[in-house]
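Please supply some protein, with C-alpha cells.
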Amino acid sequence: MTAERRERITDPERIRALAHPVRIALLDYLSDVTEATATECAEALGESPASCSFHLRTLEKYGYIERAERRGREKPWRVRSADFDMRPDPDVAGSLHAVQAVASVGLESEFLRAMDWFSRIDRESDEWVQATTFTRSSFWATAEELAQLSRDVQDLTDRFAGRHADPSKRPEGARFSKFFAVVNPEPLGDANEERDR
C-alpha cells in the first residue's frame, strides 16, 4: 500500500485508543486471520471473552475495526484498515503525547515478540534461521532524507499485499512473518555533540 493510501490518524483520542497491549494484540490478530469473534480472539490471546469484547468495542468506537458478516449466531469482527500513519501533527494538540503512548506499548510488544523468536530459534530449520535478520545501522541524514527512508521502509512489504485476505496468493511453503523497524535520529544532546567533534 502506498503512502498516499495510508489512513492518516492525528486525533489524540483515537491514537490513544491503541495505547493498550490487548488492543494492539487484537488488531494484530484480526489482521492475521481476516475476521474472528470475541471468543476466538480470547482463545488466541489467552484473554477472557469479556475482556476481548470490551477492547473490541473500543477499537470499533475509534474506527479501527468493524463487524463482519454474521456467521449464524456468531458476530465476527474484522479490521477496517490495516495500514495507517500515526505520525504526530504539530497542529493537533496532544497528538505527540498520544503517539508516544502508543509507541511505548508497541515497542514493548515487538521487543517481546522478537525475543520469543530468538529464544526458540534453535528449534527452527536452517532455512528459516538464515531467512531471519536482526540489523542495525548508523548514518548521517537530513530530516528530509530520514523522512524518505521512513516512507521507503513502510513500503518494503507492499509486494506481499493481499496474502492475508486471499490464501491463494500465498506461495507454497509461505509462513506468516513479521517485519519491525524503527527509523529515528539520535536525540539531541551529549551523544551527538561528541560525534560532531
Q: What stands out?
A: The helical segments are 12-16, 21-33, 38-45, 49-61, 95-120, 126-130, 143-155, 190-196.
